[in-house]
Structure formats: C-alpha cells, structure tokens
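Weekly modeling sync, notes
Attendees: AB, CL, MP (scribe)

Item 1: holo prediction request
CL wants a bound-state model with fructose -6-phosphate before deciding which constructs to order. AB pointed out that an apo prediction alone won't tell us much about the pocket. Agreed to run with the ligand included and paste results into these notes for async review.

Input as submitted:
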Amino acid sequence: MEVFIFKDSQQVAEYAADMICNLLDFKSRAVLGLATGTTPIATYEVLINRFRAGQISFKRVTSFNLDEYIGLQSSSPHSYRSFMNKHLFDTIDIDPARTYLPECSPGQDPRSVGPDYEQRIVAAGGIDLQLLGIGGNGHIGFNEPGSSLGSRTRVKVLTQRTFEDNSRLFNEGDFQPHMAVTMGIATILDARRILLLATGEHKAAAIKDTVEGAISAMHPATVLQQHQRVRVILDEAAASQLEHLDYYQWVQLQNDSIAAKHGGSADEDPWFHN
Ligand code: F6R
C-alpha cells in the first residue's frame, strides 16, 4: 500500500485525476472502475475540466461502476446511474453504451445480475484502474463488515449505519433502498490498480484501520493491504489518526526525489507497469 497525504480534498482530486489521465495517455482503451458517493465528485470535476480543455478523451474508455441500488428505476434521481450521468458521463465523450453499472431491471431476479456483470468485466479485459471511496465502517463498494473476502458481484443488504449515512442524499418520504448489487471484494482485488480516496476527519478512523489494522472481513478495506498496486490518497484530515503519518510523508518525499531525478511520467512510474 502506498499512502499519499495531501493538504486538502482538491489536491486529492487533482492527484486522482492525474493517475487516470496518465493511464489514458498510454492506454486509451482503458477499463475504469468507478465509484459514486461524495468523495469522487471533486475528481470527476477535475476530469471534466481537463476534457473541456481538450487534454483528455474518454471516447475509447469502458467503465464499470462498483454498485447500484436495487428497487430504483435507473431514471430515478437517486440511482447511481443518474449520479454518474450527472457528475461525469453526460459531460464527457464516453460512449454511454460502454458505461456499465450492476443494474437490476424491474422484475429481474437481482441474484442474476452479479454473474453477468462478472462476465462482462472479464470480456472487457478486466479493470485497469479502480477508484474507491470508503465507508465509515470500512466498507468498499457495498461490501459491508462481515463480507466474504473472496466475494464476487452479488446482492448485499446495507447495514443500518450505511443506510443512515446515505439517507442525507434522499428527501424525506423518498423510497430509500436497503439493498444493492455490488462488486465483491475479490472482484475489486482483480483490478490491476486501485486508488482509494478518503477526505475529511469523519474518515480518519476507517483509514487508520485500513492502513494499519489487521486484515479482517469486519473491516473490508483492510484486504487492500494484500493488493500489489494500491494507492491510498488522503487529505490531512483523513490521515490525522495514522500512527506512522511521519513515515508515510517521509516516504512520499523520497519517492518524489527519485521521480525528480529519474523521471516522473507514467512510463517511468512502476505503478503503471503491467
Ligand atoms: C460508492 C460506494 C461506497 C462509497 C462509500 C463512501 O459507489 O461504493 O463504498 O465509496 O460509502 O461514500 P462517500 O464518498 O459518500 O463518503
């Protein structure tokens, strides 16, 4: 796990966007794993600005989102499909036919969505870069505490905590789903590269456990410690409970000096090597 600490959430977004742009520079047909939630919105804004400035194109990109609620029409303003359209897809040149979410159409057995989604990801060549946020309880995607570390895309029932955390996005009286289809933990670990973003003090405890705690299904994000290419991108508030904070900052400085001496482009960054 590489831990990067930035001053604020805007710098986190710029860095995450840099990683995505670097990937697209040498692989225009990249497969991106995308997330919803408040955290990645700033990154999507940076990407949109760079697209508008002609610095990046998503024409040949395929995307797979982590999760989608069960029980909402995709046209519902609360669906993750609508979220992605609003915050990214509608403004960039990605082909909508190549943007996938694990959606369950009305009347469809939600248990059939996962295996199809897994096949689609494999057929697309696998995910080159997965963007993740983290829940206050350590969930990634909707893999709640207790999720099998070997799980694949499937139906998950949200914990009361996640349900309450997400209720801020629904108006009173709106139907709020308590189930979702989510990529599994093993599905996420199959991605070639993972960027975990966390901003704000309310994520500090979950980040401490993720980076410095023991691997446990009760804190699903800890499993990322086993992945070869994970970058944890934090603002100072989200990093504030890390015991070895000074060390991570020292490592960052040393790596910056290697990059300054030997080149810091994607070609020269081992994180991008297959
Ligand atoms: C989103 C997702 C969730 C969120 C997490 C953090 O697709 O799968 O795991 O990343 O709940 O959400 P925010 O960013 O709203 O704090």
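Recorded for review: DSSP finds eight helices and ten strands in the chain.
Action items: CL to compare against the apo run; MP to circulate these notes.
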